[in-house]
Fold:
Amino acid sequence: MNLNDIRKEREKWMRWKNILPLRQALESLEDVSAKLELCDVVKIISECEKEKIYEIAKLLMPWRKGPFEVCGTFIDAEWKSNIKYNLLRPHFDLKDKRVADIGCNNGYYLFRMQEDKPKSLVGFDPSPLYKTQFDFINHFVKSKIVYELLGVEHLEFYEEKFDTIFCLGVLYHRSDPVAMLKSLYKGLDKQGELILDTFYIEGGGEMCLCPASSYSKIPNIYFVPTVGALKNWCLRAGFSSFEVLEKSVTDSNEQRKTEWMQGQSLENFLDPKDNAKTVEGYPAPARIYVRLKKEKK
Structure:
């Protein structure tokens, strides 16, 4: 697989008629010096045209991941991604490591990961809108993060292997989860680790929920496993260990409609009479976070 050919082809996506005006808006930004604060809010402090920053940020909606603050404009994204990041933070140390984030969206986690001083940071996400949001933030941050318009299927062919890979909220979107886990495995260097987050259901058996048409109004959710089933997938993919780090239930504090994402959100996905169920009658979304290790060969 020639990744450079794929890169050239996908670079054309940035000229789609719905994306090109956004790219042109970014080109109008002044090159200013800025101070970056990395905490729950990725905060950029700079003397710039505040009205223009607000207008461009609004053009880039919807903002799914965040929060960000750019020159006084607070971007209150649909997801308070700091909650997930802070939950996982005690479980990793990225200093001097080669790190990838698969399904990185606008790069919120990647910007936060800079505090560990990793050797390199690479985001994978085939979305021209999210790439443009990333470029907007990175215009001020001026980080060395590499953003690839590639998917997990390209990972095993990538020019370098990674010490740590994050894959947060992607696995349930794949119709062949074991094949995806194998791709992640192949993207790791010897003794590398994968930090994975996915939906799960309670249960003692090795079973999966297989939604008929949608789960929580999301059409491309194929399997929601028990912990036992998830462990079996991971071992079949080649991983040598399976460690449960955390579990959480998504609530309306973490995911909700805001000024910056005005479509439907969690409140619309749950049964209005019973928040323990989705509108389809399935168990409400719960997440499991695991660490998987690649054995030395």
Observations:
- The chain has one domain: 3-21+40-293.
- The two ends are 24 Å apart (CA to CA).
